[in-house]
Amino acid sequence: MKVFVCCLFIIANISNNGKASLESFAPSGTNILFEDTTKNLDKVSCYRPCKFNVKPKRCHYNFKVEPTIQEDGRPAITINGMTPGPPIQACVNDIIVVEVQNNILDQDISIHWHGIEQKGTPYMDGVPMVTQCPIGYGQTFKYAFVATSPGTFFYHADSVSHQSDGVYGPLIINQPQPLEHHSSLYDYDRSAENTLTIGAKFPELLTAKLEDVSKLKPDALIINGDGDVSKIVVMAGFAYRLRFINAIATECPVIVTIEKHEMVVIATDGKPTKPVLARNVELHPGERMDAVVRASEEGGGYWVRVHGTGACTGLGANAMLIYSGFNYTAMLAENQNEYKQESFASDLVVSGQMLESLQDQSHASEVKSVYLGIDRNTVQVKEADLDFRYISDAIPKKPFFPAAFALHENGVVQINKKSFLYPNVPILLRPRDVRQDMYCKVGEEETQVEAQCIQVLDAIEGEVLEIALVNEGFGSNDSYTFHMHGYNMQVISTWQNPKDKPISKEDFQKLSKDGKISRNLQNPPVKDTITVPNKGYTIVRIKIDRGGTWLLECRSCALSSVPAAIMIRVPETIPKAVVDSLPKCGNYRPPDVLLN
Ligand SMILES: *[C@@H]1O[C@H](CO)[C@@H](O)[C@H](O)[C@H]1NC(C)=O
Ligand SMILES: *[C@@H]1O[C@H](CO)[C@@H](O)[C@H](O)[C@H]1NC(C)=O
């Protein structure tokens, strides 16, 4: 085993006192590039100091996905017995290989690598019937992709229900320290220890329920799983880069706050931002934030509190910020996992969409405007007419996850009054075999009579899409979180109707015609996960530069429901050799005896 010895250890001018100012985060001397983390190497196979001009590594993981009874007696779906699953830690240019074996009887899964661009490997994006065949019971799918961009990412089951049942984990891509934009603001970036992956637990397995689960709410928040309270160990005077991941699949924004310590947010969704001082960091489901905390107290232990909002209101979870040498035994005894109003000062709340990126977009040229009207609609169809399963020519009517939707009572969240339909074959790999009558084009949905269709937005390389996601709010009072696969979005406008009145397409067009929609093109935040406020809109721009079939999907709409998503299709021909090498839908089932 190699030993990484920490390098220059020069401490100068550590400012210990100034708190509520950015200045106190000024450099504290030469950065300690890396310290001895060999103790982690067994757990995280590619975790190492990233260097220039060295051969990338191949980081290999085996994921066995299966139902497990947790220590507290609850069932969960775990990866290698754990939830969250194994942390993936790599350096830029490494090749990440994950062999996923599905051991969930009668259920199909796939894993999505949230925020990963999949440059050159659009068929590794993990969306069943869009980029691959779903992984059936007993099957193994080998994911392999290059870690092209550094940052804080995570992975999760593509299905919201499986993710909620426990199938998720952190994915961190590091780069040589001199390339980190804000490395001068911190001394340590221990991404293996200082990442908080925030999840939620439901009282029962969502994927085991056959009836409507849309009313089920999480009853606990967890940080890095169920085990010991997570501890961030610091030395007085030094500054640490922390990474927060909201890995919850349902509409549970969370707020992270550290007792007696301010933070400086330096990145969101893996992309560096202009540094912003924060007392509270807000993360919507699927969002990530990197923040620097300076150990500005003399010692002691402080709670890192995570409290839920939205569907997780009233829930909380704690981690600890421990100064080296502090005896925290007594502190642990008072750990309360409820959110207490008095322990939370609601000022200096920083959320992803208010940050500024380091990229000025004001030169952006022509755009193609697209309107997506999002609302909860009651659909006038018989349940039997709707298909909330994958339909595959190889797996006749095989249920994807056993969940019905609350069609008649609550309606379903739709985009332009349609629900997304998974194609009959993986569309990226076999475009010509997709049934033509399943399609509807974004903007021309009214020509399709079915309530569900493959909602496609065709785009070509070089084009800039300007997509207005308008949460019309006639049928609901919810905000929604959307995730863009494979691409980043520049968020140029976020607005909520101060009058709390629904907005129709006509209202939006009038606002637009009257020049009442402001667009910020100067350093707009660059994100892969955004929130669209209730009775408001979020406008994003996407510069199309790569082929593939990429979902823009509402993550928080789909619990026990048909998906709300559109597919952005950019011409791309997958080489025949690749298509032939990928598993066919449902063609291989090893006998049960091999699975145990
Ligand atoms: C830490 O504190 C606990 C109780 O507060 C005590 O029992 C224990 O001996 C202490 N440990 C050390 C190493 O001082
Ligand atoms: C939304 O909120 C308004 C006002 O608070 C209420 O009248 C309406 O019933 C709510 N709509 C839904 C779908 O909950």
Automatic annotation (TrEMBL):
Gene3D superfamilies: Cupredoxins - blue copper proteins. Residues 74-177, 213-310, 424-554 form the Plastocyanin-like domain. Keywords: Copper, Metal-binding, Oxidoreductase, Signal. One of its GO terms (biological process) is iron ion transport. Pfam families: Cu-oxidase (PF00394), Cu-oxidase_2 (PF07731), Cu-oxidase_3 (PF07732). GO terms for molecular function: copper ion binding; oxidoreductase activity. It comes from the Eukaryota. InterPro entries: Cu-oxidase-like_N (IPR011707), Cu-oxidase_2nd (IPR001117), Cu-oxidase_C (IPR011706), Cu-oxidase_fam (IPR045087), Cupredoxin (IPR008972). Belongs to the multicopper oxidase family. PANTHER family: FI03373P-RELATED, MULTI-COPPER OXIDASE. This is Laccase-2-like.
